[in-house]
Every structure is written in structure tokens, then in C-alpha cells.
Design goal:
Elements: H1 49-89, E1 99-104, E2 107-112, H2 123-130, H3 134-137, H4 157-166
Length: 167
């Protein structure tokens, strides 16, 4: 059976005397706070062998860390010595080696210089940066690309270059 809803509003019902609002959140059990690190079982060490290995590993790790730091410092010093030679030796050359060799008797260490600059076609930008000395530091570079399957078979090398420039 359906009932009609009335358009009148009912007054709010006051809570019964003696009943108060109840908060059940205090009853709920909470999970213990997660630890920052996981807990792992400890390896038994009845004869002290594990402790000796752990001490050796930690000591060796400290030595390796110190050696790596020392190696980085020595490499940086060698690079600082090699850099002026590298640039002075290759000044004005078109073909530049990527490394120099440092020797101690029959022992050898190669010092590599991997930084390079890409070509540019903006001559005005180079002149703004380098001024009138730009021509002394930069040279033009070019290459020919010829798609061989488009060249007629009966042409000589010079005819191919002329043909490429015409097409």
C-alpha cells in the first residue's frame, strides 16, 4: 500500500533523555605501526665464522670506498695536466684524436676527451661569439651524399658530381 507524503515538515526529534552520542572508534583495534625497515631472521653463528666474515666484508668495503675516492682524485689530477697538452697539441688540426696516452715505464693510462661540438650553419652566431678570431678557430666541413641507384650507369666520377649538382 502506497502512502502519500505530506508537505508539512516535522519538527526534529530530540534524543531521548539519558542517551548521548556514542563513538565506536575507540573500540576498534588498530594494526601496529609499520616499521621503517623489515625485520629479518638472524643467521646463526655458533663458531664465530659469520662474525669474522661480516667484519672482513665491512673492512674491505671501507677500503674499496677509500680507494675509489683516491682513484677519482688521481684521475682528475691527470686530466687537469693532460687537458692543456691535448688542446695545444691538436690546435689547428682537422683530425683530432679522442685521447692522449700517459705512460709510466711500460704501463699506460689513456686519458679520453669525449666532449665535442656539433656543426652549425649559422656563421653570424659564431662571429658574434668569437669576434674576428672566429675564422682561426673554425673551419668549414662538408660531405657529398649521392643516392647511387638514381645515377645513370654510364657516367664517370666527375660527371656524377656535375650531375648531382644539377639535380
Amino acid at each position: 500500500m502506497k502512502t502519500k507524503s505530506s508537505t508539512t515538515t516535522a519538527a526534529p526529534v530530540a534524543p531521548a533523555a539519558g542517551l548521548k552520542r556514542i563513538n565506536l572508534a575507540g573500540i576498534a583495534t588498530t594494526a601496529p605501526a609499520a616499521k621503517a625497515a623489515k625485520s629479518y631472521p638472524e643467521l646463526p653463528d655458533p663458531d664465530g665464522q659469520v662474525a669474522a666474515l661480516v667484519e672482513g666484508i665491512l673492512e674491505t668495503s671501507d677500503q674499496v670506498e677509500a680507494l675509489e675516492g683516491s682513484l677519482q682524485i688521481e684521475k682528475a689530477e691527470l686530466i687537469a695536466i693532460a687537458k692543456p697538452f691535448y688542446f695545444a697539441h691538436h690546435a689547428g688540426q682537422m683530425a683530432v684524436a679522442s685521447s692522449v696516452e700517459a705512460k709510466a715505464g711500460d704501463k699506460l693510462v689513456r686519458v679520453g676527451f669525449s666532449n665535442s661540438y656539433r656543426g652549425t650553419t649559422d656563421d653570424a652566431a659564431i662571429m658574434r661569439v668569437t669576434g674576428e678570431k672566429g675564422a682561426a678557430f673554425f673551419k668549414r666541413s662538408f660531405e657529398f651524399k649521392i643516392k647511387g641507384d638514381l645515377i645513370p650507369e654510364n657516367l664517370t666520377f666527375l660527371q656524377i658530381i656535375f650531375w648531382q649538382n644539377q639535380n
